[in-house]
Amino acid sequence: MTWGVQCPRVAWYFGCLALLTVSACTSTPTPASSATPPDELASVLYEIGHPCQPPLASTSRADEPAPNLFVETVLLNVPQGMATPSAETISSIAQQPDVQLLGTPHLIGKPEERTVATFEQHLGILDHPALSQLSFLPKQSESGLHILEFELGFSMPNADPARNPELARTSFLVEGRPDQPLLRSADYPGNPQRKVLAIVKAYPIRSQDDLRSHFECKMRLHQSALEQR
Hints:
By secondary structure, the protein is an alpha+beta fold. The chain has three helices and eleven strands.
């Protein structure tokens, strides 16, 4: 089992570039239960909705086994009745009412090994569920599709300062090809009127060049998203 680390959202492009062996870079989860401003959501959705492959400059062959998998996620807290959009209409989520960005974890894992990213621990009083942990297990089907099993851990509301919040878990599975946005929903612990909407993209990492090219692409997308705000 591999454990993750935290990187601020603005810095993860730079700070994680040289860390091929580090398992995860994650934005700090949103602590409040209020809706995220539409322009902030639009930037996040723009970045995950646009491809980075191809073309990526790489010295490795596409048919070589990939010892690492880079996984990009956007986790949203949305109303239970909200329809899940298609990969082509991801940007429409920013215009939906009452959508909260929970976090944007970016993780590097190995096939058939579970990677765990732990966010800040919540101690004592907590008035709302808070995303505290994410883990994923990558597999590959015979057809070459990536299969990713995710589990999210939420610190649950707690009114007793002498006790730590209990951890509730929810899970989901996505399957698809590299650099394709994959959408899936899961139960939002403690509130049947809400659900977690996850957007996931996976990229095979065969070398340091692959990782560098990917981060360069993500930096360009990040800049383009900021220019559009």
